[in-house]
Amino acid sequence: MFKVLKRMSKKEVGYVLVSLIFIVSQVYLDLKLPDYMSKITMLIQTKGTLHEILKEGSFMLLCALGSLLAAVIVGFFAARVAAGLSRKLRRDVYYQVSEYSMAEINKFSTPSLITRSTNDITQVQMIVAMGLQLVIKAPITAVWAITKISNKSWEWTTATALAVVFLLVVIGIIITFAMPKFKIIQKLTDRLNSVTRENLTGIRVVRAYNAEGYETNKFEKANDDITKTNLFVQRMMAVMMPVMSLISNGLTLAVYLIGASLIESAVGIQSRMSLFSDMVVFTSYAMQVVMAFMMLTMIFIMLPRASVSAKRIMEVIETKSSIKDGTKTAGTAGVEGTIEFKDVAFGYADGSEDVIEGVSFTATKGQTVAFIGSTGAGKSTLINLIPRYYDATKGSVLVDGVDVKDYSIETLHDKIGFNPQKPVMFNGTIRSNISFGDTGHAPLTDEQIWQALDIAQASEFVKKLPDGLDSEISQGGLNLSGGQKQRLAIARAIARRPEILVFDDSFSALDYRTDKTLRDTLTREVKDTTKLIVAQRIGTIMDADQIVVLDRGKVVGLGTHKELLANNDVYQEIAYSQLSKEELA
Ligand SMILES: Nc1ncnc2c1ncn2[C@@H]1O[C@H](COP(=O)(O)OP(=O)(O)OP(=O)(O)O)[C@@H](O)[C@H]1O
């Protein structure tokens, strides 16, 4: 929690300090009220004039108004500090996560990162807003009120001390039982998010497989768990409030009982009067002490959950990306467009088995290099090493003759047009999706966008849309077909005008004819661009300059279609399972 608070800006610290002045004034004014009450009581008993009573009453009213004003000002500053801090935290989390490699994102999981940047930050915001008012006010009030009553009758003081002890016991019980529950609430929120997210993103599959019941059970379990935990905590709170009232009312009663016996045993009207006035004042102060402890209890209730949240936020902020940015902003002259893998190995987790081993090959400028292999052979993993979504654990990946680790990430990504296995579309228009991403080139003209769409075989369907390039694309491209999304994603990569184009199974949703036309157009129109193509279909890669055959993470064949068909068992097996001898010839 402390680490989170340290992230406050100087201005916010300034607000806290100013609030401090107003909090002290508020406590001072609140504790002044009983004095006026005492004076008014005395005046009434000693038959003071109406003018005198009104005068004291006006001061009392002014104090109350002053206290109210101070409370409003503190509330205003507290809200500003809390909102400012949470904005900063959201920003810090966002920027940190943007720098994460896939390894860190997988480590936290997407639903957890979403909970951390929303719900967890809200918890911290709430505790800061309330804490600023209560954490500072409660102890000041308690100490100040105690000093005010300590010189009165010891019987009354003892009664107050007993009430405080009771309060501490209640707080202790709450901390012991509720705190562990609060700690798990955030984890349960993560789970609920994860289950809901999975169900929503996979809704079509869920329906198609009549798996609503199964998914509902999963959701109900997550929902029940969080509800039970919340109920437990709320019940504790529900018991706590009446117990607190009981203690404070019991204290008032005790003060009056003690007062009655003290007054009875006092001699003379004057001393009785003074005792009565003391009793009224004491009750007020005692209430302030009890109130202060109640405020502290509120903090104790909220603090554990907020500190768990703060820890979860700091975990994200303090986790550094395993991908360290390099410094180079240019490749070696004369070898532009070259990609070289030198004895590369990679495993997903520390100590886990390598899913890629001893991979070596070179693709030169303008070449098309294809990767083929059975499911899980490591094709996607291999090409993910080029834009450094993961870093090779052994060997090196060179782009333009320079190790990818030595490039600044921005330079490296500017060289690559990467097309992941699942095409990703963003909320916006076709234009915004194609001209997505700053490449350092001038902004794309409509002509360039249409050219990219032409190459990607997407212009035909875009032209048919009523708003052409300005047609809306909904989040995730839900209003597009799988093939349309793939073509737009391919157009986006081409439009970047990169040195290297990487297609991870990007032609799978295209029919054979479109697949062939697209590849022919690519070869013709972007002939100087190096193309790396991962594919399942032999037809897609037959014309490649080089084909890398992968099997269980190892290169088991390297050559042209003809060479591999003649002498590579794995390639032959894949090829003959898809096409006839005549088609392959
Ligand atoms: N994020 C990940 N964490 C751990 N293991 C992974 C991860 N992604 C892939 N793997 C494992 O790495 C191996 C290679 O997977 P990869 O996705 O590279 O195969 P692929 O050849 O592209 O398969 P496909 O053709 O089905 O896409 C598989 O055994 C897979 O289980």
List the helices and strands and how they pair.
Elements: H1 2-5, H2 10-45, H3 50-99, H4 102-108, H5 110-149, H6 154-201, H7 203-208, H8 212-265, H9 269-318, E1 339-346, E2 356-363, E3 368-373, H10 379-384, E4 394-399, E5 402-403, H11 409-415, E6 416-419, E7 428-429, H12 430-434, H13 446-455, H14 459-464, E8 472-473, H15 482-495, E9 500-504, H16 512-525, E10 530-534, H17 538-541, E11 546-551, E12 554-559, H18 561-567, H19 569-578, H20 581-584
Parallel strand pairs: 3-10, 3-11, 6-9, 9-10
Antiparallel strand pairs: 1-2, 1-4, 4-5, 7-8, 11-12
Helix pairs in contact: 2-3, 2-5, 2-9, 3-5, 3-9, 5-6, 5-9, 6-8, 6-9, 8-9, 13-15, 18-19
Adenosine-5'-triphosphate binds next to helix 10.
Domain ABC transporter: 339-577
Transmembrane segments: 12-29, 59-82, 126-147, 159-179, 238-259, 279-303
Main location: membrane
Give structural notes.
Residues 339-577 form the ABC transporter domain. This protein has helices spanning 2-5, 10-45, 50-99, 102-108, 110-149, 154-201, 203-208, 212-265, 269-318, 379-384, 409-415, 430-434, 446-455, 459-464, 482-495, 512-525, 538-541, 561-567, 569-578, 581-584, and strands at residues 339-346, 356-363, 368-373, 394-399, 402-403, 416-419, 428-429, 472-473, 500-504, 530-534, 546-551, 554-559. It is of the alpha/beta class and 585 residues long. The chain folds into 3 domains: 2-318, ABC transporter transmembrane region fold (Up-down Bundle), CATH 1.20.1560.10; 328-415 and 499-570, 3-Layer(aba) Sandwich (Rossmann fold), CATH 3.40.50.300; 422-497, 3-Layer(aba) Sandwich (Rossmann fold). The strands form 3 sheets. Strands 6-9-10-3-11-12 form a 6-stranded mixed beta sheet. A 4-stranded antiparallel beta sheet has the order 2-1-4-5, with no helix packed on it. The protein starts with a helix and ends with a helix. The model has no long low-confidence stretch (mean pLDDT 86). Bound molecules: adenosine-5'-triphosphate. The site of adenosine-5'-triphosphate has 11 residues, from helix 10. Adenosine-5'-triphosphate binds next to helix 10.
